[in-house]
Design a protein that fits this description.
six-stranded mixed sheet, five-stranded parallel sheet, Oxidized Rhodanese, domain 1, 524 residues, 21 strands, alpha/beta
Length: 524
């Protein structure tokens, strides 16, 4: 029987300085309807894959939450079977938390979003609105517009003339992008947080240029009636910048100011052996740099995104956090923001680059079972004969963009919803975009629903497309209301987009008031 923790007891635990993780077992879309401020999403459907990364110390205190319908108990039991020895469940879930008089937060990445609003208020980050920026562009002003989001988001929609420079790269790359100190620098994202943090990164670093954030980002741009660019490719130049030493000096000053520690490899190795503490090791460089060479035990967490979505990487409060890069700038810039967010045991690893011997993308450390593989050639022949049904476990918004014709979208642990749509003969091929790791977890669950042959599709949907076989896309499949696995952004929706944009921007701005009411944030 899993131990229960009352809301008042959990509130008291949050105010201690000891390690504590609060994880929510619901899917991300459900999580976004209302959750505790410091809760990190760990959906039951993906728990075996991500628990080891989010909760690297099996001895850490963990409290699992949900909306009171029993998912938390199921997730807690699964964590215990994985070796976690100090797991409890919030009694009554989020309804009990609310009824005790405590605050529930909607949306996702709430600590980071709230921190962005705090930064704007605390530092007085200057901004321009869409109409002002449009006038500056039209006037041919000496300026650069730097988009601080990951490249895939930038390609989807961007400000005309924009250059993609993810937030963790800004202070490292600014010298090459705006060598003239008279050049105006405008930083944007889709909404507010990464615009504010990106602009303030440059201002705090002491760059000589005037730096402003684009108020409300691409959403504000579109709400003002201006068209975003689609498919843009302009990006910062690769390689070590010529003025990297200047960038390092600026970042080092911020490290000292915000009391970020420095450690060597011997210290890190000792911490890795310490079973009494939780340790996170993050490589904050661009994912392509990480793939080319990294510490074998470090997780890829590009600096801007780590600050923007901290709850996706750090579930244990008061854990040790060590950041890694190749020459210290990006790790220092990211670490000083995490320190201001309240992560007090934050450090930068010195001299890490000589140990970058592992290659390839980050793979979650969770184990997955073996499963039969359906050869691509055989699957295609069955598809042509009408004897193949594909079950695709991609995120719903990715499924919308492209899937094998006739594929069914599903969420692992809830695949019984597909029972009436699975064939009794032929082949059922399960696929997921993570090299079929999630698919392998789901094969046994699908096999319980049909007597047909069930296996994972060789090389998945990506392999199907690479072989020149057709994909289909449909923004309405699954419909918005079925997308429980993601918290839909305004521009992911099929209706009411402008209304959703306005609501989202208002929600971000209101977070400052909400965190004051909650009282558990420790920014500064």
């Amino acid at each position: 029987m899993v131990r229960k923790v009352a809301p008042d007891a959990l509130k008291a635990m949050l105010r201690e300085q000891a390690e504590l993780a609060i994880v929510d077992a619901r899917e991300e879309g459900e999580f976004g309807t209302g959750h505790l401020f410091w809760a990190a999403p760990l959906p039951r459907s993906r728990l075996p894959l991500f628990a080891r990364a989010l909760l690297p110390n099996t001895g850490a205190r963990i409290v699992v939450t949900d909306d009171g319908r029993g998912l938390a108990e199921q997730a807690a039991a699964e964590l215990e079977t994985m070796g976690y020895g100090n797991v409890a469940v919030l009694a009554g879930g989020t309804p009990a938390w609310r009824d005790a008089g405590y605050v529930l937060f909607t949306g996702v990445n709430v600590p980071s979003k709230a921190f962005g609003e705090w930064v704007e208020h605390h530092y007085g980050t200057p901004s321009v609105d869409a109409a002002e920026l449009k006038a500056l562009i039209d006037a041919g002003t000496d300026m650069v517009v730097l988009d601080s989001r990951p490249f895939d988001e930038f390609r989807r929609m961007s400000i005309p003339t924009g250059i993609n420079v993810p937030g963790g790269e800004l202070a490292y790359r600014i010298g090459a992008l705006a060598p003239n100190p008279e050049t105006l620098v405008v930083v944007n994202c889709a909404g507010r947080t990464r615009s504010i943090l990106g602009a303030e990164s440059l201002r705090s670093a002491g760059v000589p240029n005037k730096v402003v954030a684009l108020r409300n980002g691409t959403m504000g741009w579109e709400l003002a009636g201006f068209a975003c660019a689609r498919g843009a490719t302009a990006r910062y130049p690769d390689g070590r910048p010529a003025d990297a030493d200047t960038a390092f000096a600026r970042a080092e000053a911020l490290r000292v100011r915000h009391r970020v520690g420095l450690i060597d490899r011997a210290t890190l190795d000792a911490w890795r052996r310490d079973t009494t503490r939780t340790l996170y090791v993050f490589d904050v460089r661009d994912p392509a740099e990480y793939a080319a060479g990294h510490l074998a035990f470090a997780r890829s967490a590009p600096g801007g995104q780590l600050v923007q979505a901290t709850d996706a990487w750090i579930a244990v409060r008061h854990a040790r956090v060590v950041l890694v890069d190749d020459d210290g700038v990006r790790a220092r810039m990211t670490a000083q923001w995490l320190a201001q967010m309240g992560h007090r045991d934050i450090h930068v690893l010195e001299g890490a680059a000589e140990d970058f011997t592992a290659t390839g993308p980050w793979v979650p450390p969770g184990e997955v079972p073996e499963a039969e593989t359906i050869p691509l050639r055989e699957a295609h022949a069955a598809w042509q004969a009408g004897r193949l049904r594909v079950v695709d476990l991609a995120r719903s918004i990715e499924f919308r963009e492209g899937h094998i014709p006739g594929a069914l979208w599903g969420v692992r642990t809830r695949l019984d919803a597909l029972a009436g749509r699975l064939p009794e003969t032929g082949i059922v091929a399960v696929t997921s975009p993570d090299a079929n790791r999630l698919a392998r977890l789901a094969v046994a669950e699908v096999a319980e629903l049909t007597p047909a042959r069930v296996g994972v599709l060789e090389r998945g949907t990506a392999g199907w497309a690479a072989a020149g076989l057709p994909l289909e896309g449909d923004r309405t499949n699954p419909p918005d209301e079925a997308c429980i696995d993601v918290h839909l952004r305004p521009y992911d929706r099929n209706a009411g987009v402008e209304e959703a944009m306005r609501a989202y921007l208002s929600w971000e701005i209101d977070l400052v008031r909400e965190i004051a009411r909650d009282g558990d944030a420790a920014f500064g």
